[in-house]
């Protein structure tokens, strides 16, 4: 709707300002991370003259960030692999197989989608405690899988519904068992959906704090995001080092976003339009 | 894909062993073809495939919900395990912190239209091909992938009393605002940061909705010389009512359940308990104060709020959609 000049500017100027407001906080943080404490106190906005990369090393070494990153990587990778496996199996069965109870199971998954973690947090903590799984990697992985599985099943089911049933028929006629169809047909065909859902699941798990805080009480088992909260207490009077820690924690996600923003946005959009 | 959709409808029992939806009868002779397994294994296959998912969802999502409601009618501490009726609920509503939390939910409901309108308007502009729409799209979406902890930490720097935002305000002659220390301001600040971080999600969903909107309608509006506001009112809002509904409900759910990270990092419930939300209250009662039964009662209340808000919004929006 940019017919008249002033109307165009009425839209473009606020949109550009908003875009600036969206990126600037991160640029500010990156800039602060490159300053000395003295430079930060004297002038918060000026671009860092000499880049003090050593701040990153200080933050990295001080609170055991390496350990937190390793914890996060282990937990997120296992959770995503399990989510994609269990989710695609169920998605295939719910979309392309006929069996008694499939409707109820699909509805149950949909219902679970709308139960937020905070609502079931207390009893879940007790269940996991009774099972001896609190403060263990499998325990945290299991809770992540439970948390994001309904979403994964839902998206995989919608995706598999777009695959023509004739393909499944043909594979059956060729002598494949149901499992064979899953492994040789559905898994490879599902790759675009698995990629989108997998990235989203990975982001959810990587960004989480509340589940990790609840399930991993000991400092050794902290994930990266919980580690960032610890960083804050430690460097409350050393803002550049604190900003460096925040930057280190943000960079992996930013990198993923730069390379895979199409798939991330597609996954979010698919969750809203399908079903 | 109508063919695909029709084939997933439930079918009468007795054919449950077949993994070939819609297969015509003449293919019946291939029934026993699959080499491995045999008929019995084939019949069980769907259950084997959904089994893990069902086990996880039932044991770790649905069962805890029931357990929690049950739990909320028992006591804490010395009365652990005994039935106490509605005591937890009475205590909850007497607790000023929980009342603040509920009041803040009311604030979220009031701010909800803003949180939906921002991504909706931006998506409209982007869809109508403002110059640079691709750039805007990816910039606006990017905070949505950041962890609330990181967002909170960044805004802690920006909003500190002696921080950069107040320095800017001072530069133009305004007095500084205690963004996170003033009980009257802190909650609005945190919600503002949440909106900053999440409007990209709504934007992407709106754009997906626009993709399903009949572009002929927009062209017709343009030919008829409709203004932007007229186009929005008479073409976009009715055409996207389902999307608006979806964004409204998910934004509300997001506000009620995904601000924990921000609250934890930015205010820890303060100042003077002014930034409590039910989810934060549950966390404190369970994690810090060891009152799991009271926390369960709060969880049940949170669940009811979400149910009521969700259903109310759906019916309200459905009615609005019919009128236009």
UniProtKB/TrEMBL annotation, chain A:
Pfam families in UniProt: BPD_transp_1
Membrane topology: Multi-pass membrane protein
Chief localization: membrane
Localization of this protein: Cell membrane
Transmembrane spans: 7-27, 68-92, 104-125, 137-156, 193-219, 239-260
Gene3D superfamilies tied to this protein: MetI-like
Coiled-coil ranges per UniProt: none
ABC transmembrane type-1 domain location: 69-260
Keyword set, alphabetical order: Cell membrane, Membrane, Transmembrane, Transmembrane helix, Transport
Family statement drawn from the similarity comment of this UniProt entry: Belongs to the binding-protein-dependent transport system permease family.
Protein name: Carbohydrate ABC transporter permease
Organism, as annotated: Micromonospora cathayae
Native organism taxonomy: Bacteria, Bacillati, Actinomycetota, Actinomycetes, Micromonosporales
Automatic annotation (TrEMBL), chain B:
Key words, A-Z: Cell membrane, Membrane, Transmembrane, Transmembrane helix, Transport
Membrane topology: Multi-pass membrane protein
Chain segments annotated as transmembrane: 44-63, 105-128, 140-161, 185-213, 246-266, 293-317
Ranges annotated as biased composition (Basic and acidic residues): 15-32
InterPro entries: ABC_transporter_permease (IPR051393), MetI-like (IPR000515), MetI-like_sf (IPR035906)
CDD domains reported in the protein's UniProt record: TM_PBP2 (cd06261)
Boundaries of every ABC transmembrane type-1 domain copy: 97-313
Region of interest (Disordered), ranges: 1-37
Primary site of residence: membrane
Domain of life: Bacteria
Subcellular location: Cell membrane
Similarity section: Belongs to the binding-protein-dependent transport system permease family.
Protein name, per record: Sugar ABC transporter permease
Biological source species: Micromonospora cathayae
Lineage, highest ranks first: Bacteria, Bacillati, Actinomycetota, Actinomycetes, Micromonosporales
């Amino acid at each position: 709707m940019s017919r008249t000049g002033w109307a165009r500017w009425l839209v473009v100027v606020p949109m550009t300002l908003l875009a600036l407001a969206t990126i600037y906080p991160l640029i500010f943080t990156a800039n602060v991370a490159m300053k000395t404490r003295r430079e930060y106190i004297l002038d918060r906005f000026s671009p860092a003259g000499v880049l003090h990369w050593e701040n990153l090393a200080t933050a990295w070494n001080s609170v055991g960030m390496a350990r937190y990153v390793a914890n996060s990587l282990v937990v997120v990778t296992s959770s995503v692999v399990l989510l994609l496996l269990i989710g695609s199996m169920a998605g295939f069965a719910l979309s392309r197989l006929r069996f008694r109870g499939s409707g109820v199971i699909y509805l149950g998954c949909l219902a679970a989608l709308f139960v937020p973690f905070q609502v079931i947090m207390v009893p879940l903590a007790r269940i996991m405690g009774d099972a001896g799984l609190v403060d263990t990697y499998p325990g945290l992985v299991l809770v992540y899988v439970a948390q994001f599985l309904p979403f994964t099943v839902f998206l995989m089911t919608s995706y598999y519904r777009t695959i023509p049933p004739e393909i499944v028929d043909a594979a059956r006629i060729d002598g494949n068992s149901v499992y064979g169809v899953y492994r040789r047909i559905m898994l490879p065909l599902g790759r675009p959906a698995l990629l989108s859902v997998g990235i989203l699941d990975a982001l959810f798990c990587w960004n989480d704090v509340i589940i990790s805080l609840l399930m991993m009480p000991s400092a050794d088992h902290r994930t990266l995001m919980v580690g960032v909260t610890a960083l804050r207490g430690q460097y409350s009077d050393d803002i550049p080092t604190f900003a460096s820690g925040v930057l280190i924690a943000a960079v992996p996600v930013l990198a993923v976003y730069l390379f895979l923003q199409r798939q991330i946005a597609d996954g979010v959009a698919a969750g809203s339009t399908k079903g | 894909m109508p063919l695909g959709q029709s084939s997933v409808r439930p079918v009468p029992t007795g054919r449950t062993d077949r993994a070939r939806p819609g297969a015509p009868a003449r293919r019946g002779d291939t029934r026993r073809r699959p080499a491995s397994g045999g008929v019995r294994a084939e019949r069980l296959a769907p259950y084997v495939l959904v089994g893990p998912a069902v086990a996880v969802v039932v044991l770790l999502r649905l069962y805890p919900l029931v357990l929690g409601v049950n739990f909320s009618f028992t006591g804490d501490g010395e009365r652990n395990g005994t039935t106490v009726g509605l005591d937890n609920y009475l205590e909850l509503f007497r607790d000023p912190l929980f009342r603040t939390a509920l009041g803040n939910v009311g604030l979220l409901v009031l701010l909800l239209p803003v949180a939906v309108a921002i991504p909706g308007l931006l998506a409209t502009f982007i869809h109508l091909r403002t110059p640079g729409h691709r750039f805007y799209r990816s910039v606006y979406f990017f905070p949505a992938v950041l962890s609330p902890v990181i967002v909170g930490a960044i805004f802690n720097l920006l909003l500190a009393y002696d921080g950069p935002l107040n320095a800017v305000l001072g530069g133009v002659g305004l007095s500084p605002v205690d963004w996170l220390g003033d009980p009257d301001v802190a909650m609005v600040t945190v919600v503002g940061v949440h909106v900053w971080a999440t409007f990209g999600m709504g934007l992407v969903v709106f754009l997906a909705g626009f993709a399903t909107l009949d572009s002929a309608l927009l062209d017709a509006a343009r030919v008829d010389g409709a203004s932007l506001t007229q186009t929005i009112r008479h073409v976009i809002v009715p055409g996207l009512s389902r999307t608006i509904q979806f964004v409204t409900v998910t934004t509300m759910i997001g506000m009620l359940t995904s601000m924990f990270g921000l609250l934890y990092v930015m205010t820890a419930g303060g100042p003077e308990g002014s930034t409590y939300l039910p989810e934060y209250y549950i966390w404190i009662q369970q994690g810090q104060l060891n009152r799991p039964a009271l926390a369960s009662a709060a969880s049940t209340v949170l669940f009811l709020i979400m149910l009521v808000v969700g259903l109310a919004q759906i019916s309200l929006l459905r009615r609005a959609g019919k009128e236009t």
